[in-house]
Request: fold
Amino acid sequence: MNIASLAPLAVVLPIFGAALAFMLLRHERGQRIVTISVLSLTLALECLLLGSVWDGSSGGTYAVTLGAWAPPWGITLVVDQFSSFMLVVSTAISLAVLVYATGQGLADGSAQGAQNNGPISVFHPSYMILVAGVSNAFLAGDLFNLYVGFEILLTASYVLMTLGGTGPRIRAGVTYVVVSVVSSLLFLIAIGMVYAATGTVNMADLAVKLGQLGPEMQVLLHAMLLVGFGIKAAVFPLSFWLPDSYPTAPAPVTAVFAGLLTKVGVYAIVRTETLLFPGDSLNLPLMVVALATMVVGILGALAQTDIKRLLSFTLVSHIGYMVFGLAMSSALGLAAAVYYVAHHITVQTSLFLVTGLIERRGGSASQDRLAGLAKLSPLLALLYFIPAMNLSGIPPLSGFLGKLGLLQAGVQLGTPMAITLVVTGVVVSLLTLLAMARVWNRVFWRRPEDAENPDPALLAPAAATALPRTMVGATAGLVVLGLGLTVFAGPLFQLSEQSALSMLDRTDYIYSVLGAEAAEAAAADVASLQGARP
Amino acid sequence: MTANLTLLIISGLLFACGIYLVLERSLTRVLLGLMLLTNGANLLVLATGGGAGIAPFYDAGTDPAAYSDPLPQALILTSIVISFAVTAFMLAMIYRTWQLGRADVVADDIEDRRVAATPSWDAEDDADVPTDLSEFMNPDEAVAADLEALATPDPRLGPEGGDRPRHAEDTHAPETEGTEEGATPR
Reply:
């Protein structure tokens, strides 16, 4: 028995944890213990999964069929380097955010918790369902299971987004729910179209059969899938919902949404581009979209005064980098995009967690109301400074390494559009630095008296607004994880490269799901595609 | 594969009405629009299964071509459950909106409006910096201005005003403000 056959547990364990947490609805302490231990267990399991596929040479892809239905019909979960890497990073982030959230709940006092039992007790189960949905989407081996994974995580996110049911959250929640439902519908329609055209929804099977369709049909299906995933990933013309809805949610919820949910969309786009529609039929539109996403996102960020909104806009902007790497359709570009996704999940989440701490210490997340935090809370300044510099791509941090890989891939491709993207990538990186440095100057460096409307909490004595140790610890853990991505960049980039090569090759994936015959057909397909390319 | 035209036309109608309703500002209409859209999508997926046939797996001798495709029906079942859950959640949110604001409309994002209304002119970044040009004057002009300033003593300073060596930048000093037209570097 292979360790990879335990992959379904990555979905089942969190759902089990959610069930237990529901049973312990009135026992906040019990819920905490259950959810944290279940998530730790899931993380350990996923580390084992990653370990089993780490060495790509010995066949790094495993398919698990559920319910004894043979692959093209039954539900298949696929563990390969990309999916297990994403699983480990996402669960590590979720665990850190969960610890942060429990720390916040504890600090807010159990008396208050007992008073409005609803929101707090429903947080833990919803959160576990969210993790299960994310894991399911990463592992899904067929389009419909991917859709179900999306729906699980979205439904949980609706609850988390509107936690407490206050006016602003309901307003943001309505936008978020409507946009998400529409994007899921587009995805569902695309699945229906794909099924009508090929008679299957299994991704390995589709990889073989989609290539046999006419080119117009391929472009149509391809574009429909990309639009559906593009809304979830917040790619430029489809990104307007994100900065409107994310900032109002509670800090840990925003952090985990920003880190994970858009990346699940990016993951789906990567799978579409490599497994289902190899070749570069839609790469030019993708490049244009990547360019627009980077530029529009960062210009939006520069206009904001609220730090949470500013970070939401930088989130949109940096999704552009991932699409950029993907659109190069080279092993280097894809590898850099994979590494960049892991880097960005960690850094963006830690920045949102730090913003939560800033809000707690300074009483607000608006730059006009904050000042002098470097002196008031040096630890907070350090926790902000490292991920902020990491996000802007200052050497030698992981953001720099990921961007360097992307830029190299762009130069390697060498078309005018690719070079434009390289230049834009550098400029947007500098603008990110500007946005981050502005926050630094205003929130941390200037004197408290210089704030336009200083918040009363800002000027209160430090003892009155001490930061809970658990929250600071969780944030510091994430910052250290971000530094770990830098220190171990060598092996991790190698892993990304191997996963990129295996994704571009596709035979490994198809072989593990459908067996040798289908893999050969797909290999011939890829060879003919490469032959057709100049 | 045969496609059922009636199903497709109905599904198209549902999409058209659904999109119209989703674009409204009233939340109840948006909800109705979403329901129409999801049902339109369900019908579309149903149509992808081809024509109707006999029940599948009824007995072992069933001809595979004779029975209707069960997979799209299974998919629709899942998506019906999902849209049911989402509809219930939307209803709860609409009710909450009504409770909070006695209104059934999509509200504006206040922070968004505020940022949009911010003038692009920022006092800190964009205001004219008062420039002191004297440092960059043509040396000949500067000497001429100095000589001229020496030649015409300032009446307010009295006799000792002329003794001091004067520079052009002294004209910005408050005590001589606006008196010497010739020395002002304009």
In short: The CA atoms of residues 186 and 227 of chain A lie 8 Å apart. The radius of gyration of chain A is 22 Å. Chain A touches chain B through 39 residues (CB under 8 Å). Residues 110-119 of chain A have pLDDT under 50 and may be disordered.
